[in-house]
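My current task is to audit a protein record that another person submitted. Alongside the sequence sits a line of tokens, each denoting a local backbone shape. Where you disagree with what is written, explain briefly why. This is what I was given:
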Amino acid sequence: MKAVLATDLSAASEATIENETCLGCLGRIGIEEMHLVTVIPSNVHAGMPGIDFEKRRRNAIRSYERVIEDAGFDVDVHVVRGTPHRRIRGIAETIGASLTLVGSRGKSPLENRVIGSTARNLARTTETPLLVNRIERAADDPDVVRQHLFQRMLYATDFSDNAERAFEAFSYLRHATQEATLVHVETPKDPGPSDDTDPETQLGERAEQLEGWGIETRTEIRRGDPTDEILAAETTYDPTTILVGSRGHSRLRRLLLGSVSEDLVARANGNVMLVPPERTR
């Protein structure tokens, strides 16, 4: 499996890349080849006085390359120019990546507009599973918030096709997962369950599958606003990563974003993994 690891060479990006535990988690789920990507913004020009961003970035990324090679991965480096989320997404699709990993501090409204904008734009548009690795916000020398990426998973489902596609990610995440919490949030607009769509039954079936893989699993049905209730479950169970399907078949729906997955990227305390709809051929 291949992964794209996007970096802006900031202290936050360094926290993701130099965390041996995080790299170990990626190895356990089957990642063998890592593509380091850094994007020089289109409005930065090589001829700007005293600045050679491309050369500086190539020099800086070499140390990250060595860290990842020492962890046992094959590494390819991409220093490209353009709009960050578009170039990251394009490289992921070109190489056939199974995962895109990007660090984000989140929480602050200003940082969500600037630092976090790449993560949010990827959440809207990615066609590759996206892992947003949460980094400490109020620190000059930040660290990752959760050392183990997949050890404790919180899977949120509305039983849609997109949610089922996200659940399928456990086929490889299970090699690094010890505990899972499966959550369904009922809203006032939900129709009453029929015999074959009872949420407790459906969650139970999924829990049985995970327990068969040796994952300690609990289920919970909550009621209210989906984003608020998923975040409340995060507070209760302290997962290392929230796993959820993302939606976005149309431009309008990407902007509104069904808005749960984008809200989770912005507001969750820990990591968030989004699994997009299957690509339309």
About this structure: DSSP finds twelve helices and ten strands in the chain. The chain has two domains: 2-134, 152-275. Confidence is low (pLDDT under 50) at residues 107-115, 248-258. Residues 57 and 216 are 43 Å apart (CA to CA).
